[in-house]
Specification:
Helix content: 40-55%
Distance between the termini: 18 Å
CATH superfamily of the largest domain: Glycogen Phosphorylase B
CATH class of the largest domain: Alpha Beta
Strand order of the largest sheet: 3-2-1-4-5-6-7
CATH architecture of the largest domain: 3-Layer(aba) Sandwich
Number of helices: 15
CATH topology of the largest domain: Rossmann fold
Radius of gyration: 21 Å
Number of strands: 13
Order of helices and strands: EHEEHEHEHHEHEHEHEHEHEHEHEHHH
Shape: elongated
Length: 371
């Protein structure tokens, strides 16, 4: 395995779940050992080389003890850790607190660093001091990466003149175990003829599951349509109440292994996630839309944040007003009751995911900027 030249310092990494953790772990895997990871917010602090799923060099990192138990350390506690990376380049995936520590470390003679933004991290910047600090961190970075053009647009509102202009590095699509629709349904023991609409998300308001439930309740009146929601989160109890109140029939799956998730995606007819802006929270890109595309199913996505880059309206699925039950119903029914259209959208989405969203290509772009 090559000697790592880049150290990712992050508070979000598997076994934690979510888009940021998946983005980072896939990028590390694509580096094939050229990037190491210090996960400072692990349940048990870890030093990872070669990706979480690899067996090489997974050891405790005494420097990250402050991150144990899921509580992020203060930036000054991370400065010694950054200084210790001399001779390498630090990749920062959370501008606060890790970016602050990397900047201070550089001012003290420490290593170069780059910053990767995901969307919410920019929306959380408020007040003159935080904005000033954001500019200092960014304008002293060797490179700036954004996970979507939408995130880049947000960044340019806060920092109109970057010393180094941000590069967009959208997520890759990963790889899946492919199942035909028929095989997946046999494996799950579900009816071959009943349409399945599926949502996979952390259950937080911006994912739009509340609106999806109301839309599904309307579609299910007098029709056999299955709705499956995979995920868990702080919004779960509210969503259960909405499902009961609206009489939506839902199969709830709180926790699932990746292999089983791919089976459910392959069995489904439509992926539905009407994401929306919710205060500071925004969909930076939406890796799950690419995962649906890999499974050859079209997506109905809220026209918010980076979702419009993950789903091409009318080509790989449809973008909808995330607050419009009527528009969601119209687009979902258009897809589930028209097999030829559904197949066309699904095939286009899969080809696009395979041809345009390769993780190795993303890693090469990051590496070329940093080494």
């Amino acid at each position: 395995m090559p000697t790592p030249k880049i150290t990712l310092i992050t508070i979000d990494y598997p076994p934690k779940r979510g888009g940021v953790a998946r983005y980072l772990s896939e990028l590390v895997k694509a580096s094939e050992g050229e990037m190491e990871v210090i996960f400072i917010n692990a349940p048990s602090p870890l030093f990872v080389r070669g990706g979480f799923s690899d067996k090489a060099n997974i050891n405790r990192s005494p420097s990250s003890e402050e991150g144990a138990g899921g509580v992020s350390p203060r930036w000054w506690q991370l400065v010694p850790l950054c200084l210790h990376q001399k001779g390498k380049i630090i990749l920062v995936s959370h501008v606060f607190p890790v970016g602050t520590a990397a900047w201070v470390s550089k001012m003290l003679g420490g290593p170069e660093y780059a910053v990767l933004f995901h969307g919410l991290d920019l929306r959380m910047v408020r007040g003159r001091f935080k904005t000033w600090l954001l500019r200092q961190i960014c304008n002293n970075a060797k490179a700036i990466f954004m996970n979507s053009h939408s995130t880049r647009k947000d960044a340019l509102k806060r920092i109109p003149q970057f010393r180094t202009m941000p590069k967009v590095i959208t997520p890759g699509a990963g790889s899946i175990e492919f199942f035909s629709r028929q095989d997946a349904r046999r494996k799950l023991a579900v009816d071959q003829d009943i349409p399945i609409v599926i949502s996979i998300a952390r259950l937080v308001p911006r994912k739009g599951i509340d609106i999806a439930l109301r839309a599904m309740a309307r579609m299910q009146k007098g029709k056999d349509i299955s709705y499956v929601v995979i995920g868990d989160g702080p919004d779960r109890d509210r969503l259960l109440s909405i499902a009961e109140e609206s009489h939506a029939h839902v199969t709830w799956i709180r926790d699932i292994e990746d292999a089983d998730k791919w089976v459910w995606l392959a069995a489904a007819d439509v992926f539905l996630l009407p994401v929306r802006d919710e205060g500071d929270d925004v969909e930076g890109f939406g890796i799950v839309f690419l995962e649906a595309a890999l499974a050859s199913i079209p997506s109905i996505a809220g026209n918010s944040g980076g979702a419009a880059e993950a789903v091409l309206d009318g080509e790989t699925g449809y973008l909808v007003d995330p607050n419009s039950v009527e528009e969601i119903v119209e687009k979902v029914e258009k897809v589930i009751w028209h097999e030829e259209l559904r197949d066309q959208l699904g095939k286009r989405g899969r080809l696009r995911a395979l041809n345009e969203f390769d993780w190795k290509d993303r890693w090469d772009k990051v590496k070329n900027e940093l080494t």
